[in-house]
Automatic annotation (TrEMBL):
Entry-linked NCBIfam families: FRU (TIGR00829)
Residue ranges constituting the PTS EIIB type-2 domain according to the UniProt record: 5-101
Record bears the keyword Transferase: yes
Keyword Transferase annotated: yes
InterPro entries: Bacterial_PTS_Sugar_Transport, PTS_EIIB-like_sf, PTS_EIIB_2, PTS_EIIB_2/3, PTS_IIB_fruc
Gene3D superfamilies, per the entry: 3.40.50.2300
Name of the molecule in the record: PTS fructose transporter subunit IIB
An annotated GO BP: phosphoenolpyruvate-dependent sugar phosphotransferase system
Length: 106
């Protein structure tokens, strides 16, 4: 069964690592057979913004961030795994598995 994951990536400068983490999460989820939508909060602002529908559908939220998530109140009540932006760049599948484990334990 495909799991539905949503994520936000953001690094302190909002340039390379924000997008590298997003790409790594997308690639990892695809390899694992899961669905993911990733919002980037970079120097140019919020891109690929998660909608209310995305948030409602998402089973778990991954914050791969080194800075504060903008508009984080959108995720109130959701299960959230927060990791440094470097974590999915190093091993996206490990991060995704950690997030899924959080909801499987509920």
């Amino acid at each position: 069964m495909k799991r539905k994951i949503i994520a936000v990536t953001a690094c302190a400068t909002g340039v390379a690592h924000t997008y590298m983490a997003a790409q790594a999460l997308k690639k990892g989820a695809k390899k694992m057979g899961d669905l993911i939508k990733v919002e980037t909060q970079g120097a140019t602002g919020i891109e690929n913004e998660l909608t209310e529908k995305d948030v409602n559908i998402g089973e778990v939220v991954i914050f791969a961030v080194d800075t504060k998530v903008r508009n984080s109140e959108r995720f109130a009540g959701k299960t959230i795994l927060e990791v440094p932006v470097s974590a999915p760049i190093k091993d996206a599948e490990k991060v995704i598995n950690e997030a899924l484990k959080l909801i499987d334990e509920k």
